[in-house]
Design brief:
By secondary structure, the protein is α+β, with helices and mostly antiparallel strands. It has helices spanning 14-22, 37-42, 89-99, 105-110, 113-119, 125-132, 150-153, 228-234, 253-265, 276-299; strands spanning 7-9, 28-31, 50-53, 63-66, 69-73, 136-141, 144-149, 154-156, 159-160, 167-174, 180-187, 197-206, 209-218, 225-226.
Amino acid sequence: MKPAAFDYVAPRTVDEALNALGATRHDVRVLAGGQSLILEMHLQRIRPDLVVDINRVAELDRLSVNDGTVEIGALVRHGVFESPQAVPGPLGRLFALAAVNIAHPPIRACGTMVGSLAWAHPASEWCAIALALDAAIEVRSTGGAREIAARDYFRGPLQTARARDELITSVRFPLPADDTGVGFIEHRRTHFCFAQVAVAATLTVHDGLISDARIGLVNCADRPIRAHAAEQVLIGCEITVPAVGNRLPGGHPFVRAGRIAADQDAAPLAEPYADPEYRRQVIAVLVGRTLRQAAEGVLQ
């Protein structure tokens, strides 16, 4: 199939892009990497009246660290984050663990983190990480700018709090403390499939006890979710992992957290090759393993 006919503009400034977005009441789409948008247009599941290509807006291709936060512009590509040095400290390590799970190198060279947030697919790695780490999403329109907390942004599959005429210009993440451990593990049928389940986790430890835990779940509901119930089980627990072997004892806090995440936090939907009960089992196992990975980073 071929895309339906559409108008196309390629602005060179944010203001030009905003004017284009606000100029029509019909379906308008923003093109950055286009890995999802182009496929949907090709299959004519999306038939936009106007495509606004922002790739020439140089001011959106920026990554900066200020006052304990990292700000990532709308044109920063997935591939940038494959290097743990792209962002300082534990956040850079977490991004690197996640980035290599995104599709394959050509996609990572073109697609963007902000584009993933705009698309809001339940299987997006970045969406779950943004939710778990309390990221803030900056959107702009001709009427001004506003900030949307990640916890308020995701409304459902491919549904967000962003208005039709708003452009996401950047996303900001708070930088975790240097003594924070991070983990990310993904399960999928083949290397190039969407995640059936993935888990992002951070652990902060004081005096040997877990003082903060954050768990983001990928493709475990109709939107990215944060495993609040599982996190609460971990607060105040001693951080220990077996010296050898891969299996945690059944009563270990990480195992309990995995079961709670699967039973109370997640709401997995049936999909080919993975019914809800199978996915709950995977969630429980992956949460425990990801927490262990984060703990090992703290204990090194």
